[in-house]
Amino acid sequence: MMLHGRRHARGMTMVELMVAMVMGLFLISGAVALLIASKRSYTESERYARMGENGRFALQVLSMDLRHAGFFGEAAPPGIVRDAGLDDIPAAEDCDEPARAGVYGDAAAPDDNGVGLFLFVARADAGGDAIGCIDDAVPGSDVVVIKSVRPRPLSDGVRDDPSDDDGTIDEPEGLDDETTYVISNAINGVLFDGADAAPSIITGGDVPGGNAWEYRYQAYYIRAGEVPQLSRKVIRWNGARMAVVTEDVVDGIENLRLMIGEDSDDDGEVDRYRDSADPDTDWDRVQAMEIHMLVRSLDQTPGAPDERTYNLGNDALTPGGPFRRTVVSGVVSVRNAKLLIRGNI
Q1: Where are the domains of the chain?
Q2: CA neighbor of 188 nearest in space, from 333, 77, 46
Q3: Furthest C-alpha separation in the chain
């Protein structure tokens, strides 16, 4: 019996081994191909998800600030004046184009309070220059300037102004020397530097019963670079004085175009939309804005270049290159501008 068992116990033949190896390689190659396909699908899904997230965030940030354009506390922009001691931004960095567009207005022109033109749009030229303080924008992209105050008063408290030494409690408390403010009531307001003596808010003072609000100047634009991004120019203390500095908001925003909703009959409603480069736009009648952003993947995508054409407002762009892209759009009502027109202010 033992000899009989040994006679039938034998290994695999060469043919069987080759067949097994071929089958094994076939199964392994199928598993690897499935893994690669899954990885590629995951990468593409992640790329589109990140583009969508960046686009939605950029749209949300810009839309929120557009809704607050022209908000200066209780006072309307025509009722706000510049404090005589307000230090201007140096001419070399002031965002002063077009006229009335400076960060604080023009000290040489008493009727220019710096906030009368609280919203406008410019277009970067072929060299990426715009509004005097931007030289690194994506050529042909839009720049939108927004002036307002933070939608929350600094404080309801008051304290004695030490400069008058009269023991009278007469200015808002909590003012920061490195910040610019607007103190306003329902009638008037003053734009001033927190390092200077604040306007009096007592009865009979400069702004009776006024509250202090932090002044905000923001110029949103698309900053050119290896990865373009939505950035903004803001005013901030630079260690020695208030200055215009750059803040990056979100990566991958490749272009920005806006359509300007204008009210032509003073009823507080949009009658037509103009291209942002239209020289006939009346910025005092802007009631809404259409926002169009072209969002690009942060890394290159293997394969054929992107040959699609994307519509942004009145323009059709074909940027090309090995990137994935999508467009995000939205419409924002400029609420404070509507109130000014409806109130005939």
Answers
A1: 46-342
A2: 77
A3: 124
